[in-house]
Amino acid sequence: MGKAKTKDKETFSFVVDLKTALSLTPQQRVRWVGKACRKVADGEASIKHLYDVLSSRKLVSEMPEKVGRRMLRVVRENLYLFSVKQQRFLTEESALAMNFTLDDRSEDEAEEPEVAAAPSSRSDDAAARMEEMMIRCRDFVRQKASTFEHRRIEAEEAERQAAIAREKEAAERFAREWEEIRKWHSRLEEWEQANMVANDGRYQVHLQVCRRMRSRSCHSSDSSRGGESDDERRHKKDKDNNKDKRRRRDRGRRRNRSSSRDSHTRDKDAPAQPPARRHRVDETRVPNATLADLLRGNPA
What we know:
Radius of gyration: 72 Å
Number of strands: 0
Oligomer: single chain
Shape: elongated
Mean pLDDT: 75
């Protein structure tokens, strides 16, 4: 029943609800009832919901006399919207009809100019529209809240299934690639085996040739090493002889230097000798002396 009621509300652009009417002030309720009647006449609101609101005792609770008469007048002006049974209840048995009555004074009040109330009516209409929008939002949230968890579970399940499908596709692609590689390699196995056998034969021949060449090189190196040993010994002997000669020559030079240094120091330390006294020769006495005689010390 609750779902059907929500569906009926959603089919109309203007929502008629007792909670909305009770949230307004008494003056605003009168204008809201008039607006609801116009929406019902235009087919934008539910006549059943409007009848339920007008039949409620809460609608007229603590409502001033003047405001109640104005609401009753609005209802009587729009009685054509209701059925005969509903009209009789609203005009005779409803709380609105039993608490308020229409007289001449109320008719005079109805003829009061509406210009003074225009600003307040516009603000009241804006408040009513805002409240109506909030009611719609709350109804929408209540309706969608129950399905949010279900949609979340469905989204998680869809994501999990997509991940499994991707993994399966990757595994199948991997298997197909390896199967193609196996087929391609199977055609080359015989050729590869023949090449391996041929390479093994060539390798054995090459190995034998290398062994022969290595043995020959070893023999030649041994023979050359034996001939060079005599030359090396001879060269070493000559080198040793040269070293001995050089060593003896250096030793003699050092000895000569030391002896000359010692003699020089002895001469330097000895006392100075006076020069030898020479006998003066009177040349007048030996005019005929020769040089040889003079040297012999025999004057003429």
